[in-house]
Sequence to fold (105 residues):
Amino acid sequence: DQFFCPTYVDDLVAAIHAVQARALSGVMNLSSPEIWSRHQIAVALARAMRVDAGLVKKISLHDFPSMAGRPLNTSMVCSRLKKETDVSFTPLEACIKRVATHQRL
Fold:
């Protein structure tokens, strides 16, 4: 039940370079615009690895005492980045496929 914007680190570096090259200043969110939950990522990874996605069980972030009070949605709005740069982000599905290709069970 926690949602965020997972971002491929090479894309983040490219976004930082784009902001620096344009000498942009002020507050700007740098992340992929895709919003995913941890559960969605785990299911997509299981499928990409051709393992039973039914083994992935939903839980609440707040089931963990150390996570009490943490927000469930930490996704970011990156409209300024999109408006002021030509940065594009690798879709998470492509990143998941890349990870699955390199993992062995």
User: Anything to note?
Assistant: The two ends are 27 Å apart (CA to CA). The chain has four helices and two strands. The helical segments are 9-21, 38-48, 79-84, 92-102.
